[in-house]
Amino acid sequence: MIDLEPMENDTEEIKWTDKKRWVLFALPWTFTRYSLTEDKLLIDSGLLVAKQEEILLYRILDITLTRNVFQRMSGLGTITIMAADKSTPAFEIKNIPNSKEVKNKLSDLVEAARDKKKIYSREIMGNMNVEEYV
User: Which of 13, 18, 30, 111 has the fewest other C-beta atoms within 10 Å?
Assistant: First the structure.
């Protein structure tokens, strides 16, 4: 028999959570929710078939913020993330409010997660492989 009750230290504090929004009205009438903890980014989506993607923060390689004219008018933005993850190597956190602040928070948490795990990243510069300790 498997004990599925959470232990006291298993609950992670949510650092940020929000829903994907409609661009024109900035209303959260979608079935996609984003959550950010100290170690993970969670993407819950779907109504009839629920799906949850989990990306470990230390595996995130690049974060880009884009805001088209409609998003700027609505106070929204889209964060594009490249990760060293086989199931989700690239994805977007679409149409979220306060996108610049969320991007900065995500970036800080990625660096903290790498420091915590003492992970180094490999960056390819031209044809050379350069290993850099974070």
Answer: 13
